[in-house]
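Annual report, structural modelling task.

Input specification for the D-xylitol-5-phosphate complex:
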Amino acid sequence: MISPSLLSADFAKLGQEVSAVTDAGAEMIHFDVMDGHFVPNITFGPMILSAIRKDSRLPFEAHLMITQPQVYWKAFATAGADIIGFHIEVDIDHRKLASEIHSAGKKACIVLNPPTDIRSIENILPDVDIVLVMTVNPGFGGQRFLESNLEKISWLNEMRKKKRYNYLIEVDGGINYETAALVKRAGADILVAGSFIFGSKNYAETISNLKCCK
Ligand code: DX5
Ligand code: ZN
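The model returned the following structure:
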């Protein structure tokens, strides 16, 4: 599945961009929410998400790169996010948050940064619908894919077979045709791609090639 990251879309016409990638064959829409604390950048909040909810029928995922996801997740859920992603690096009760998100009828996604040990998320694996492996340091689009994270994807793939967990594996950062093939081979199910899709001339062609390359 392909989830275009709006971080690289034209912010002056977000609604049209969302609807264009929806028509171009995307399966989800990825919202990079940044607070200037957890990452050195600021993007948008729930009001923007709500404003463009009508422009797509696809599931919206809110990737919360913020220090207080436990305070703000509900605002994104109310605005129309279907999946809430929160980082293992924030010091909160992650399992409690996953359970609150589920109680609201939404999907929970745990995210980990490139320097973070995969073992740090082991305890929460039974409680999440998606595990998002960052393959760049969060904060900006257009960075180079960090290959050392491929091992995490393979580990997650093995782990779900061994323990019969149901989570999907998602990858975010530096995705292009080459890196898409690598992460798919390692076991990834969902690919987030920002600059590669929105920087391309033909969204439909790029999305379809991202899906088919092996
Ligand atoms: C980085 C974001 C990513 C980013 C991906 O902080 O989480 O979603 O937009 O952008 P590309 O695909 O350009 O690496
Ligand atoms: Zn993201």
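The longest strand covers residues 29-34.
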